[in-house]
Write a structure and sequence with these properties.
mainly alpha; coiled coil; 0% strand; rod-shaped
Length: 147
Amino acid sequence: MILSHGNAAVERGFSVNKKCLVENQKEKSLIAQRIIYDTVNAKGELENFIVTKDLIHAARNAHMWYKEELARENREKRDAEEMRDRRKRAAKVLRELEAKKRQILDDAVKETARIDDEIKVAQKLIPLLICLYRNVNTDRNYTISHY
């Protein structure tokens, strides 16, 4: 990271970034290039920069590390897509269950209204049936006692 105390360093930083930038370059690549550039500049001249054994191994292993990082990113992307698909399926099941619940509740309300109507009809008929029952029983008693 570059910290500047004046405009000249900032302007130089922009020109360095402009030299490093390539179309569609990822942020990580630009950061890596800036780290290398800043490290070489901190040593003074390129001739003063010492190539160590660790640096050589890092250069040799860079492609392997890149492939591992790419595989990790692909795995994370695949996992994220899988999680998104699971959420979509769960949301669909939830919507279906809610619709089923609404339908059952609507059917229950309709059935309750139908039963209430039957109860009202029965309540209107009960006095009539009681009256008829009494009339039948009194007529029967009357007829039986006359014999």
